[in-house]
Amino acid sequence: MAEPLGPAGPHGVHQPRRPDDRRHALSPRLTPLRTVARHEIITGSPFMKPRVFVFQPIPQVAIDTLLPVADVTVYPHLDRMISMDEMIGAAQRHDYLLALHENFVPAEVMRANPGLKGIGILGNKTAMVDFDVALELKIPVVSIGRHGIPGGGPNKNTADLTVALVLNLAYRVIEADRYTHAGKFRQNQTMALMGVGCSGNTVGMIGLGGMGEYMAPVFRALDMRVVYNKRKRLAPEAEKKLDVEWVDSMDEVFRQADFLVVAVPLTHETADLITARHFDLMKPTAFFINTARGRIVVEQDLIDALKQKKIAGAALDVYATEPPERWEVEVPEELCRMDNVILIPHNGGATWQTRGFMLNTLAEGIAALIRGERPASLLNPEVYGGPKKYPDLYGRGPAIPVTEGGPAIYLY
């Protein structure tokens, strides 16, 4: 029997789900946080079991998947990243590690415990682990696999969030909320917060892939024109289906857009793609929205454009200083002081349906390793012998530099 858990953490904990109600399998609750020494320990039985360390608080459903086969330790802090020393200490005391997107598992951590039996990473074919060292030490690494994620997964969630940010900017929702909370609403239908609305305005999209294909039809349904530019133009039938217009250059997208949406992945080619020159092309009434990756934009150039009123505002879900740029995220203070900028904490895929499913799938992979199985989500079956499943994971360490000696980036 699991030992009793402590009181709810700062984010609240719902009552345990009823075992006969499958609808609650991904209910919105983080693991209750009770610190024992420095971490929360959740034990599935009084007998010795394999020990799993989780790098961040995760939905209870994933913990429940692990408890029948393991004792689970959860790093309890939501306000900071786990440090390298803490990771090394955790690796020394545990048999399995479960990392999230932001958590790299470098060689020092893997070498800290010669008996480390497995690692789980919340990604697929990512640069989160030094696979050369994992192969040397015969450590299997599992991911979220190829499972279909309900509701369209992170791409759909991020597309929905992008539309929400456009609507918030168009109708000044965040500003209006602050205005009303401050007790300033005295006149019926105040004229203090006039917005530009959606109808008749142009959304300019840089890139139009998985995310873009979800959001473009919604923008069209809002009576907005959608123009785009990407490396490879869509087929005519795809453009017709989405009802979008191709423009010949990225510069022209910036010129035409009332709402400029970044929808490209972060690669060597797209790092620092958007600079001051592009903001100079935008209308002073236009808004900039980035839910893709922070490093795609030269962040200081965006800040300067906002300070100089070259654009009307921005909405950001991603930042240049997110891991692995730095160990912890640092949102520029200048952005935090701007009332015309919406800032959210890389929340695009953060729905219970999506992230809960992904983490539970990852927990199932770890549980399978504990049972002596080889799950389909295993990234490096070669640790058991045989050819490499994904040769491109090798020879590059836990992250890929954009330039020689420069900062590292994720490649998803």
Can you lay out the helices and strands and say which pair or pack?
Elements: E1 40-42, E2 51-54, H1 60-66, E3 71-74, H2 84-93, E4 96-99, H3 107-111, E5 118-121, H4 131-136, E6 141-142, H5 153-171, H6 173-181, E7 202-206, H7 210-221, E8 225-229, H8 236-242, E9 245-246, H9 250-256, E10 259-262, H10 276-281, E11 287-290, H11 299-307, E12 313-316, H12 333-336, E13 341-343, H13 352-370, E14 400-401, E15 408-409
Parallel strand pairs: 2-3, 2-4, 4-5, 5-6, 7-8, 7-10, 8-9, 10-11, 11-12, 12-13
Antiparallel strand pairs: 1-3, 14-15
Helix pairs in contact: 1-13, 5-7
Which features characterize this protein?
Rossmann fold, six-stranded mixed sheet, 15 strands, 412 residues, alpha/beta, seven-stranded parallel sheet, elongated
Describe the model:
The protein is of the alpha/beta class and 412 residues long. The chain folds into 2 domains: 22-146 and 351-409, NAD(P)-binding Rossmann-like Domain (Rossmann fold); 151-343, NAD(P)-binding Rossmann-like Domain (Rossmann fold), CATH 3.40.50. It contains 13 helices and 15 strands. The chain has helices at residues 60-66, 84-93, 107-111, 131-136, 153-171, 173-181, 210-221, 236-242, 250-256, 276-281, 299-307, 333-336, 352-370, and strands at 40-42, 51-54, 71-74, 96-99, 118-121, 141-142, 202-206, 225-229, 245-246, 259-262, 287-290, 313-316, 341-343, 400-401, 408-409. The strands form 3 sheets. A 7-stranded parallel β-sheet has the order 9-8-7-10-11-12-13, sandwiched between helices. It has a 6-stranded mixed β-sheet with strand order 1-3-2-4-5-6, sandwiched between helices. Helix 1 (60-66) packs parallel to helix 13 (352-370) and helix 5 runs parallel beside helix 7 (210-221). The two termini are 39 Å apart. Residues 1-39 and 399-412 have low confidence and may be disordered.
